[in-house]
Design brief:
Blueprint lengths: L1 H55 L2 E3 L5 H14 L5 E5 L6 E5 L5 E6 H6 L2 H16 L2 H21 L13 H38 L2 H17 L3 H5 L26 H24 L7 H6 L24
Helix pairs in contact: 1-5, 1-6, 2-4, 4-6, 4-7, 5-6, 6-9, 7-9
Length: 324
């Protein structure tokens, strides 16, 4: 359902873009708009990851420089059936994470140092699973496309009055002025709607990959509180980057037309429901169809009973192999 909804929203944005071009220049304007969008999408398709990572000042890490984090990503990628993405660190106290890249073969995941300091090992693994969910669902490409089309709409709206066609119709000045102001606003709403839709899909994928939806729920609660408290200089410079992150910056994230993310409380509620379902399935296998496993009580208390292994206390929050 989310895939169909995203497809419809992409179609609506494309139609809006072509309609804006037609308003200013008739069929010729629509063709020019299409060519501009194609060129921008082509450049963004090949360079989106480089642009995003450079914007954040991210540095690539490997098994030597960050063995624990890279080990977590490798294990999760194998579990998800994905190529191992490049792993980056962003030196920022703002706790957040994002994924980028045009496809799973050219993907990258990044986390801030603030996130690593705030979360424990299982929560970090759940966040990385969320980002891998975006990669598996190809959300990074979808969001790149929508951001590019939205940017093209804003560009065309700003300069649209100079692109009137030669079809001798003159055009309606009121309609053109309305288009200049309304088209970018409508494009922004579509872009935000797609962003909110994809976050729910990545949460579900993370629950499947890390097998511990409650760890992601706990991470979202911590990250939302931290992101609201600690400023993000990248967003100050480029507000369009807000949709990249796992949680909204500032006080956003409520379910509204103007939010980049779904309400964090609603996301946590869905993850809790997934955890209960996973715990229920495990107890049915262990105790039989007519019995309810006592582990469900522990899962409801947040112990993590949905994880099919014993949870250990680790000295390091980032040691997937328990080597400390």
């Amino acid at each position: 359902m989310n895939g169909f909804k995203t497809l419809m929203l992409l179609a609506a944005m494309t139609a809006l873009f072509m309609g804006l071009g037609y308003t200013f220049g008739g069929s010729g304007g629509a063709l020019i708009a299409l060519l501009i969008a194609a060129g921008m999408n082509l450049v963004t398709y090949w360079n989106a990851d480089k642009i995003v990572l450079k914007m954040h000042g991210a540095r690539e890490v490997d098994g030597a420089s960050a063995p624990e984090l890279v080990g977590i990503v490798r294990q999760l990628a194998a579990r998800a059936g994905l190529p191992v993405p490049k792993v980056y660190l962003v030196d920022s106290p703002h706790p957040n994470a994002f994924a980028t890249g045009r496809n799973p073969e050219h993907a990258a995941v990044a986390a801030t140092t603030g996130l690593l300091q705030l979360l424990d090992r299982e929560e970090i693994a759940a966040v990385m699973a969320h980002e891998l969910g975006h990669v598996r669902n190809r959300d990074t490409l979808i969001m790149t496309m929508t951001a590019t089309i939205a940017g093209a709409i804003s560009f065309l709206a700003n300069f649209g009055l100079f692109f009137r066609g030669n079809d001798n119709r003159g055009g309606n000045p009121i309609a053109m002025i309305a288009a200049v102001f309304l088209a970018p606003f409508a494009a922004m709403l579509v872009q935000l709607a797609i962003s909110r839709t994809r976050e729910y899909g990545a949460d579900r994928a993370a629950a499947e990959i890390c097998r511990n939806p409650r760890a992601l729920a706990s991470a979202l609660a911590k990250l939302a509180a931290g992101a609201a408290r600690i400023p993000n200089p990248v967003i100050d410079r480029n507000p369009a980057a807000a949709s990249l992150y796992i949680v909204p910056t500032g006080r956003g994230g409520r379910d509204s037309l103007f939010s980049t993310h779904p309400d964090t409380g609603n996301r946590i509620a869905e993850l809790e429901a997934m955890a209960a379902a996973m715990g229920g399935a495990a107890s049915a296998v262990a105790a039989g169809a007519g019995r309810i496993a006592p582990a469900l009580a522990g899962a409801a208390a947040g112990v993590g009973a949905s994880v099919p292994r014993t949870r250990k206390i680790r000295r390091s929050a980032l040691d997937p192999l328990d080597r400390r």
